[in-house]
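Quick one, T. Sequence first:
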Amino acid sequence: MSNGLVGVAVIDILLFLFLVLTAIAITRLRNLFAVVMLAGVFSLLSAALFVTLDAMDVAFTEAAVGAGISTVLLLGTLALTVRNEKPVTHSAFLPLLVCTIAGATLIYGTLDMPPFGAADNPVQTHVAPDYLERTPVEIGIPNTVAAVLASYRGFDTLGEVVVVFTAAIAVLLLLGGGGRSRRHDDVSDERKKD
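Structure tokens:
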């Protein structure tokens, strides 16, 4: 194994370790502000891991949506709620059992998958060579991933952007709309009393 691959493997292992430690910290904390901040850190660590996997488009999306928009929306929601989580009154056995069964099912579902990065994977023998061959001729963009997202899957990407934008606007309207009208009503009631 070359020195470059060893360095990448060490970085990947460290990022995974930090992800696990951050997830454990999130589950143990009761201060909701700290949980929101650590969720943003978790998203940034995920984005860094995607960068090491050469998935820059996914890394940008994770950084923008996961660490950016989600953190802002969670902070906005936190402004309307209490700062600390209420103490847990029930047993954690049932949720732990459901998560264990779901995780085991997901792992079982991946057992039939071909090895990661193998040259004989279906994606390597059918779809990828076609895009790699056609993209420089048809699109003229050197980055094949950007060409696929912007051209071949342009309508799909536009649809995803519209869905995320609509969801963000809806959440902002829900967070901001009700609070303003209540404050306005409270001020109007106080003026009537005076």
